[in-house]
Amino acid sequence: MSKLPNVTTSIFTVMSKMASEHNAINLSQGFPNFPVDERLTQIVSRLANEDVHQYTPMSGYPPLLSKITALIKSSYSRNIIPETELLVTAGATQAIFTTLLALLKPNNEVIILDPSYDCYEAPILLSEAKPVRVALNNDYTPNWDKIADAFSEKTKMIIINNPHNPTGKILNKSDFENLEILLEKHPNVLLLSDEVYEYITFEDKHISTHTRTKLLDRCITVSSFGKSFHVTGWKIGYLVAPIHLMKEIKKVHQFLVFSVNSICQIAVSEYLDCVNINEISTFYQEKRDYFRSLLKNSRFELMPCEGTYFQVASYANISNENDVDFCKRLITDYGVAAIPISTFYENGKDLKLIRFCFAKDDFTLEEASRRLCTI
Hints:
By secondary structure, the chain is of the alpha/beta class. Helix content is about 40%, strand content about 15%.
């Protein structure tokens, strides 16, 4: 009997496979197609010939732990203890998976806000816990009354994703105040904050859980160098948690991966000395603005994009098809792949919205937009 009977091939795999079969431009999967910073590739090239290929300590390469500590301090004015509150992980997905397996028990309930990324539910189910899905408002703001109503005596955790994939929405100060009020009423509930796009926000500044002192003793915050430095295939991230939670997380981590890719850790550690991580948001804002300008004369209605490298668009003026069928026809008839937003909902809620990834070079964005403007 399957432990995950309802889990099938992900929509990302389906759309990418279709894009390949039809030679379509793939704006579905969230990976950049432009070159990595030459400074980073030069570091890796040099390190390949050095003695850096054996295990690092379980928690992470010590100089990298120090650099991350300094990064959190400079970005959010938070002081952490790297030896006890920080863990380098094999990407954010492994960080989330490890956290959920370590902290959940059978029959616990976990609040997930839909539309939600697809990596949350599986480890909850494998922990014999129950995901409780609560839909965001149609403008993707949280409905705190509905969220509060979903809490029960079995609630162990709530997961937030900020900046939000797939919608590009970011939480504001009022959202965090409501979250803090809610969690004050439920002192035993933990918070898992997925912040992999924290350095990709635009007009409004990202508010991190690192800055919310009321939440720090119960919060696990997850970050991704793969997203921030355009090296998604490296699968390198990190999480921060208070010591009483980190002790349990490390117990699972040591048997799941033990330690993370040594050369990637050392390369990122050196790269942090020469890169200005705050320039990333400017880079992607230019990408976002250019892509939106290219689609200005299309029949798509572009939704606000406050962060991430995803642009949500409505096709309601184009077709009455459901979003999955529309995305398939977009590939076969127009040669562009996107992701249907309904697949991020438990109940398949269809608002005639699709997601494009604009983390692509200008030529790709220009050709994709040319095709989209012919619809």
